[in-house]
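Whiteboard transcription, Tuesday session. T.W. wrote the structure tokens on the left side:
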């Protein structure tokens, strides 16, 4: 009496007995009465995960993948074997500009993702003709930030007024959670001309209500009216990026590009006693949150949904 047991190696799966006296996937037991051959079938096991590309903004564009499985907006998701490195590249459509990645990638370069779980990436394209204002991130910047409950995160933005636009752009932002406070610094931009632009995202610790939304120490926030200057100086020292001002002589059009480097301030929950508290006393729970931006100029309003991503750990 002989008993055979199949034990697949790592990365393989036993799919059953083949030729011989046994069938199925259990142990193989038989009595030898003559020369006998038994076949055990093993196959490589592969875990597949779905990579999904979402397109946002009021412009248009195409996102393609290598390996060639995704051509969005036609085919925006595909299944890849676990551990596969996928490179996503974007191409803005006519009269559109690429504003950046969010989700699994950030910035404006190629998006390289190693797929080890279900993964989502958002590509934002903005129109350059239908709207008087476009919003992008600076080179090397990010649309995704990470912090802890009670921490503060800053995002830099580039605000560009379309040629010939005059007036004051009003900016506003909304969060997907009321446990994240959003401040725009400043919340207006003058066309033509401009100033530094940043988005401050404040999370909350567990506890009672305190005043929130001020610029953290070291940025010049506080009494005396020096907050704006301190913020600009700190930003220029950290990233070497001031505002860029370009004048086209031929048609006297002015394009304003304002860049601020990403600054992340992450504070541990163990020091919660000195960190900001939400009005309800509830801490911002770990998770992924989204910030939508809205611009308004001379009665024309546009909204960029889920433009920024904040991960709270």
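and on the right, the sequence the group agreed on:
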């Amino acid at each position: 009496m002989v008993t055979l047991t199949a034990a697949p190696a790592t990365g393989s799966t036993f799919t059953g007995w083949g030729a011989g006296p046994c069938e199925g996937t259990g142990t193989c037991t038989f009595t030898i009465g003559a020369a006998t051959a038994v076949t055990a079938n093993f196959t490589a096991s592969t875990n597949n995960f779905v990579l999904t590309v979402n397109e946002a903004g009021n412009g248009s564009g195409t996102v393609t993948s290598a390996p060639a499985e995704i051509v969005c907006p036609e085919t925006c998701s595909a299944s890849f074997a676990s551990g596969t490195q996928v490179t996503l590249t974007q191409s803005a459509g006519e009269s559109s500009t690429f504003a950046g990645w969010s989700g699994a990638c950030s910035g404006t370069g190629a998006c390289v993702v190693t797929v080890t779980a279900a993964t989502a990436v958002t590509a934002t394209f903005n129109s350059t003709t239908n709207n008087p204002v476009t919003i992008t991130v600076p080179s090397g910047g990010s649309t995704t930030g990470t912090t802890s409950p009670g921490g503060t995160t800053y995002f830099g933005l580039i605000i560009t007024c379309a040629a010939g636009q005059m007036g004051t752009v009003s900016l506003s932002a909304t969060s997907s959670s009321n446990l994240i406070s959003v401040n725009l610094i400043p919340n207006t931009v003058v066309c033509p001309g401009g100033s530094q632009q940043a988005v401050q995202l404040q999370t909350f610790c567990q506890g009672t209500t305190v005043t929130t939304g001020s610029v953290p120490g070291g940025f010049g926030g506080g009494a005396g009216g020096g907050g704006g200057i301190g913020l600009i100086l700190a930003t220029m020292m950290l990233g070497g990026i001031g505002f860029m001002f370009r004048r086209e002589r031929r048609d006297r059009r002015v394009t304003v590009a304002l860049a601020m480097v990403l600054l992340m301030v992450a504070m541990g929950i163990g020091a919660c006693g000195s960190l900001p508290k939400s009005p309800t006393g509830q801490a911002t729970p770990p998770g992924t949150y989204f910030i939508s931006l809205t611009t308004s100029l001379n009665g024309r309003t546009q909204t960029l949904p889920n433009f920024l991503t904040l991960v709270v750990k």
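Someone added at the bottom: The longest helix spans residues 227-239.
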